[in-house]
Write a structure and sequence with these properties.
Shape: globular
Order of helices and strands: HHHHHHHHHHHHH
Radius of gyration: 19 Å
Oligomer: single chain
Number of helices: 13
Number of domains: 1
Length: about 300
């Protein structure tokens, strides 16, 4: 019924938006941990360790079973997790050591444009003029945010920006793979498989480069920050994101997440004392403008 469809769409946008706001808090907790001496790989691995039991409890509570699920869907869900929340998370946490929270979020939200470009390539159809305008605005905004007209800012931000753009590509892959897998696994099943695979990857990366003595040296404040990262910046937002994809699809679900950059800018300014420059604010506006055009299609 039309009314039910409208409510379903509204709830999908609300969930995707809530997930984006929660993800935006990640930089605040991460900066606090790095200021206390915890490196990005330790943060990434321990966040996964703390979040994994939550996903296991969710699987048991929902009575989820993958026995009848297509093996290809399970493998693709695992691939989505490894790419986005494994490899992508490592890139993103490393980038946050190099650049401001507001800059990271603005660049991250170029991924809806990547999704549109991917659909155009797969379907072999040139995007309509409005889509081309949206892509142009988005990537013009990326250049402004990174500091294309200020050589010093460009040099300071380029390394971290490239890491975030690579992470944005892995986020786009998560949405695209999720759209294919969720009909077979359900939003919770997809999330559990993806997060488990991601956790295994980052834990192995941590064990290959760190001793367990690093974990024993963490104090109570650091553990509380890590727990906040696991609950508020991984468990809850990934559930919101997956349910948003289920209700809206990959393209519209990604558009609903555009509240993330302004939320991150407010958090960075209010809590971390960051002061985005005029070019960065203008670039963020262009990115959001491009995504808004995509959302209207």
């Amino acid at each position: 019924m039309p009314g039910n469809n409208a409510r379903n769409t509204t709830l999908g946008f609300a969930l995707a938006g809530a997930g984006a706001i929660l993800f935006a808090t990640k930089g605040v907790f991460s900066k606090a941990l790095w200021a206390s001496g915890v490196d990005y790989l330790t943060v990434t691995a321990l966040r996964a360790v703390l979040a994994l039991p939550m996903f296991a409890v969710l699987a048991l509570w929902r009575g989820m079973s993958l026995r009848r699920a297509p093996r290809s869907a399970v493998l693709q869900a695992a691939l989505a997790g490894v790419l986005c929340y494994g490899f992508g998370a490592l890139l993103d946490f490393r980038a946050l050591e190099l650049i401001d929270v507001s800059l990271e979020r603005a660049l991250m939200f170029s991924y809806p444009a990547l999704i549109v470009a991917w659909y155009a390539i797969v379907k072999r159809v040139l995007p309509r003029p409005a889509m081309l305008l949206a892509l142009g605005l988005t990537y013009a905004g990326v250049l402004l945010v990174v500091g294309a007209f200020d050589g010093m800012v460009w040099r300071q931000n380029l390394g971290g920006a490239l890491l975030v753009l690579c992470c944005a590509a892995t986020t786009a892959s998560y949405f695209l793979l999720g759209e294919r897998c969720i009909p077979h696994l359900g939003s919770s099943g997809f999330t559990v498989v993806a997060m488990t695979a991601a956790a295994v990857m980052v834990i192995l990366a941590f064990l290959a480069t760190h001793s367990l003595g690093v974990v024993a040296q963490l104090d109570l404040k650091q553990w509380l920050l890590l727990l906040a990262l696991a609950v508020l910046c991984m468990f809850l937002p990934t559930l919101c994101q997956a349910e948003g994809i289920r209700r809206l699809g990959a393209q519209r679900g990604s558009m609903a997440s555009t509240i993330g950059p302004p939320a991150a800018m407010l958090l960075g300014t209010g809590l971390l004392g960051e002061r985005p420059g005029a070019w960065q604010i203008a670039g963020t506006a262009l990115i959001l403008g491009g995504i808004a055009i995509i959302a209207r299609r």
